[in-house]
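Fig. S4 source data, part A: sequence.
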Amino acid sequence: MKKYSLFLLATFVIVLQVVAFAQAESITVHHELGEVVVPKNPKNVVVFDYGILDALRMMEVEVKGLAKSNVPKYLEEFQGKQYVDVGTLFEPNFERIYELDPDVIFISGRQADQFGELNRIAPTVYLTIDAQDYARSVTNNLQLLGEIFGKEEFVETQLRELNDAFEEIQQQAVASGLRTLFLMVSEGTLNAYGPDSRFGVVHKEFGFVPADPQIEQANHGQNVSFEYLLKINPDLLLVLDRNAIVGGSISAQQVLDVSLVKMTKAAQNDRIIYLNSPVWYVATGGLEATWQMIADVRRALD
């Protein structure tokens, strides 16, 4: 009986050790859509957000599947056959994802409606960027990815360098006093974005003075005209060419090559900056993407 009791005690201790080990080898992630338990250092990784894909690439984390439909040029290596195409940014291919047997799936806002079904296949982590607090969102997302994949030291080094870059640019932007307008051009349509928009990082983190503080805060910006550009007369015009991402018959440079735009201070002082559009539009929050955004803004201050 004594031997049996000792056996039960030993078995109980082993069970506790196994449970403790399992807990140590997983992370409970709380996000806006729920709570999931993710294994540490997952091997089969599926990604639906290019900012996350960018960050994992910088961390040298292998990815098995991704949505290949709009991969930015700087991430074009992921178009290779070794990476499984798991659908579009809005329409996941559930059968193909299931066949991959993923350990974790990363999604963002475009896939939020599909969270429940994806989470039934594998733990699904929802990471997004708060336009009102870009830097903090990037920090939180990268720190979580670093914890999941054991890249904490790398992440903290990168975040320190990013923070220094943001502070440097903000000081220069404030000192410059450049009245700045963020403009998206799509075919012949012009849309302006203000401090509280999806591109608010320009004014909040980078510190540029808004040329028009009264811009309508719509998801797709405020539709504006060439006459509006001359009336607002920005010192600096930051231009995102949507056609460079989705395709189209005319570039932003061609659209803005008109007399009314040429009369603005931005044009006359050579301060119309054409941004790395795919980075700003579909890969925001990525690590390399953020560095490329910083490079774009630095050109405006040269």
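Fig. S4 source data, part B ends here. Residues 2-23 have pLDDT under 50 and may be disordered.
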